Amino acid sequence: MINVSKYVINSDLLSTIAIYADKTIESGEYYITEPINQYVNGGGNVKIVPAQGQYLDGGTLDGWLHANNVVAGNNL
Questions:
Q1: Which of 10, 35, 53, 56 is the most exposed place for a label (fewest CB within 10 A)?
Q2: What is the model's pLDDT at position 29?
Q3: 13 burial type by CB count under 10 A (0-12 exposed, 13-18 middle, 19+ buried)
Q4: CB 17 within 8 A of CB 11
Q5: What is the number of structural domains in the chain?
Q6: Residue 37: inside a domain, yes or no?
Q7: What is the per-residue pLDDT for 26?
Q8: How many C-beta atoms lie closer than 10 Å to residue 7's C-beta?
Q9: Would residue 61 count as lying in a domain?
Q10: Integer distance in angstroms from the first to the last C-alpha of the chain?
Q11: Structural domain containing residue 52
Q12: How far apart are CA 61 and CA 25, in angstroms?
């Protein structure tokens, strides 16, 4: 299993993220996992739903080309 960073966020969790946002900046990126952990530790509920389908990684040129070909329906 992999976290592909797709979230549906309610207003309570969004408030928690806003509170911790300034504390979760590393290398110019916001990391959402720590505010989610704080939300759960404070009694909030998180539902994890396994995704259907295939994971397409566009982080490299080859991966990006492959992902585009899959989406376009090309069998390369």
A1: 53
A2: 64
A3: buried
A4: no
A5: 1
A6: yes
A7: 61
A8: 11
A9: yes
A10: 26
A11: 11-72
A12: 27
Say if residues 70 and 56 touch (Cβ distance below 8 Å): yes
The pTM assigned to this predicted structure is 0.55
Q: Which two tokens stand for residue 3?
A: 């976290």
- So what's the pLDDT on residue 62? 95
Cβ 67 vs Cβ 57: under 8 Å? yes
In the block, residue with structure tokens 């069998």: 75
Asked whether residue 4 is domain-assigned, the answer is: no
Please give the chain's pLDDT, 76 residues, in tens: 667 777 888 888 888 878 776 665 666 666 778 888 888 999 998 888 887 888 888 889 999 999 999 999 886 6
- Residue 24 included in any domain: yes
